[in-house]
Amino acid sequence: MLFKKIVLAISVLFLSACGSSNAVPATEITVDMNEFLYEPAEITIPAGQPVALTLTNSGAQEHDFVIKEINVTGVEKEGDSGGAHHTHGSDVDFDLHISTSAGGTSKLTFTATEPGTYKIFCSIQGHEIAGMIGKLIVVSQ
Fold first, then answer.
1. Domain that holds residue 71
2. From its phi and psi, is residue 74 left (phi > 0), alpha (psi between -120 and 50) or beta?
């Protein structure tokens, strides 16, 4: 009987090890956008790890979250309002960009591959110059 219990315990341990996942959970951060700021204005994330940004727009106008140049992989968007009111024109290709309508919520998931400090800004005309800027700080692990 003791032998059966030992075999059962080893089998359970073996099967649970087979079912484990090496996936790293995403770092989850909520950013509020308003006239004319991001809160928090400075975000620190780990390089090489997935990040899930939930962007809430508590303002009365559409806002977006833009990083012009950053090396990222695995970019996914949910709730992008597809805003086309960019200061730089609609043909600009930003590495990270998501628009959120007034009162809306969107989600941007990505993995930054290189440490560094990157400027966040709202590309809607007049918003950046009004102070809607921030920093994304990517740190090495």
1. 24-139
2. left
